[in-house]
Amino acid sequence: MALNCRFFTAYRIARDLRFSLAQIAPRRFYSLLPSAYHLDDVWRTRLDTPLMQQLRAEEFYVELRKRFEITKDASPLDVEIFANKASRNEEAKHLVEILEFFRTSNVTSVFREGMHHAFVRLFLELGNLDELLKILANKPKYGLFLDHFAASLLMDKFLQLKRPQDAVRIAIDQMLQEDFQSPVTRDLALHCCISFLTSGSPDWNLLASLVEPVVVPDTGEEIIVYVRNIKNPFFDDHFDTADPKHLFGKTLYMAGRAHNDLLGRSCQLIGLGLYEKWDKSAKLLQMCLEKGQEGTLLKESLEIFMDILKNTEKTPEGFPVKPSPFETQPIIPVVGGITPPAPVDLNALLRKAEEIGRSMSANKSLVDGSLPQLAEKQVKETIERNWQHDAEKQSALYASWTSSRETEVDRLMRKFQIEERLKELQTQRNALTAEEEVLFFFERKNEWEKLLTPTARQNMLDAEAADGSSYDYRIEDPQYAVQQIPEPSTYRFVRWWKRDQAAYDAKQKELDYHR
Prior knowledge:
The chain has 515 residues and is mostly helical. It has 22 helices and two strands. It has a two-stranded parallel ribbon.
């Protein structure tokens, strides 16, 4: 019995110790990025400041929510502080609520860079990736944007979880912001797109929008629905694009444009095919043919492009371009009565692509190779070449955010203290002024009356006569006699018994009796 008790006691101690160690230093798995790139230890140093150590997240949330509800406004610094302090699932839910409040406030355009990054890292550490994807997709409601470092972390995490479709969502988000300046983020986006494209027959419904549309029941009556955002009737071919295949193709095309090599041209060709930009794809094929160099284009990419042409629905001649079922606006709007141009003859383009392919095979411009292997090799080389620089830059950025936050808090505290001291001094000054006016009222009354204009003076006299405050009995009532105060006489000593008449009379009788 004692042995069993000791065994269970040791088991509980080991279990609690394992749980505590997991909370302090959680075990992480990585796909392509090295463990040092994630900077987990550097990120935790933000909590070592006195501000973060003394702050209570729940109490701070209550005060922040109360301020939003009462004044409809709050400081962006407060939202950033709460985003950095939050560490649990309940606090993450509160942070989503606060972010929604913040996006409807008057200071929504004034945001701090650390706020977005802290939000993403919190959900990444808690594992709430599905909710994070929904928040990222709903920009009008939450307005959450990714930086290069956070986007790289998310794509690497989704690749490790064998979820290439969600990694593609992050790449599409970067494409919509037209932000492929970071080589690591750009090549990770290429690798994610190619992994999703070559993992069998891609299901484009997996990339459909996560924002649930507002469904209005059809009752046969005219219903006026309140909408926060009015859609621009002009189709901009970027933010208005809703077809997942078009978004994927444009992402692959924009990420591939940064590489003027075999991988870049191959990705551009596939991307333009999925994006259904047939004129640009035809120009790209002609350019590859005229280049005439060995290793200009992958044979696999040309085959994928021709499969896309074969599977694209052909538009009969004389009919307008059919819009995508995912898009509510026509691809080429009719403006000013001008009819849209005739659709591209895809059969002719397919024959032209086959002819260019044969010509490029003859001059060895078209080479064999595996597109996924080429993309994986490219991203590994890019990470190996740039990860240390990116990590050092991000570490300095973390320190800059912490220093900026502390400096701003100190500045606001000094400003608050000065304002409170000025209010206190103003209160004391008002009290002294009121007391001075009471003490020196009669001395200054004539001076104040002299400063009045004739009209104001007459108004004052009329008001005094109306309320009786200026009634003088010596003038208004001749029968009234003012009692005069007698002048004081010279003091002389009087015995005590002479001060009272009764005592005086008794004393006189006593003196007369003895006589």
